[in-house]
């Protein structure tokens, strides 16, 4: 969502105007009775209203008081809906498991994904998101470009489901968007997280170095070849060519080796 308004679009907001996109989002992230779902940037309710029919408990967050007023009027009487006037960059996220279904503002996509995916104790289960097309390509790339993207992709599967053409919004933005699906992957607890982050941090500091050298720096083994090969990784490959599943496999193997004392996670990942 381009943030600057224009004469044609004073609020700068692009509302979803294609019901098939909304239905597809909800279908890709099934929620129902007993589930908690957050909508981040609810606008005037294009997604909120169909969400109220799923039976899930819905928290719709929107910072624009006028949109909140209209949304409350439109959903008056919806039993399991809470419409909250808040900033999604600071709104406290639930400690209990939750899903997110939302068309998030382009300008703060990284901030929103970081809040949802970076903390190692995040309670996010699944998400179906409409995001800007280029952003979706970056976060769902088979080979992540940064340690943070690799951290996200090793702990969650992130799939670009389909293109959402600009014409599906009113008014239409300048660029297309994408429907992104995020699902928690089976990982392995605190030691897994520590091993994973330590490997990623070391490797992405020297992304063009061979894996045996960069990962080898944090492995206590004199010869890291064997453990890398056992995880299906080529010790001579560049560290920044490893796929998220490869990092996860390696971290899982190393996490069970009690002789390794992994450093604590940095503050940015603990919180
Ligand atoms: C792309 S629009 C989506 C609106 C609606 N969900 C839809 O699909 O039609 C994003 C919404 O996020 C709201 N928004 C932008 N920045 C926000 C923030 N920091 N906190 C809360 N809401 C925000 C905008 O006011 C807008 O309603």
UniProtKB/TrEMBL annotation:
Q: Which residues form a coiled coil?
A: none
Q: Where is the Ribosomal RNA adenine methylase transferase N-terminal domain?
A: 21-186
Q: Which PROSITE patterns match?
A: RRNA_A_DIMETH, SAM_RNA_A_N6_MT
Record-listed S-adenosyl-L-methionine binding positions: 14, 16, 41, 62, 87, 103
Give the record's keywords alphabetically. Methyltransferase, RNA-binding, S-adenosyl-L-methionine, Transferase
What residue intervals traverse the membrane?
A: none
Task: Look up the domain of life of the source.
Answer: Bacteria
- Classification via Pfam families: RrnaAD
In the record, the note on similarity to other proteins reads: Belongs to the class I-like SAM-binding methyltransferase superfamily. rRNA adenine N(6)-methyltransferase family.
Q: What is this protein called?
A: Ribosomal RNA adenine methylase transferase N-terminal domain-containing protein
Source organism per UniProt: Amycolatopsis minnesotensis
Q: What is the lineage of its organism?
A: Bacteria, Bacillati, Actinomycetota, Actinomycetes, Pseudonocardiales
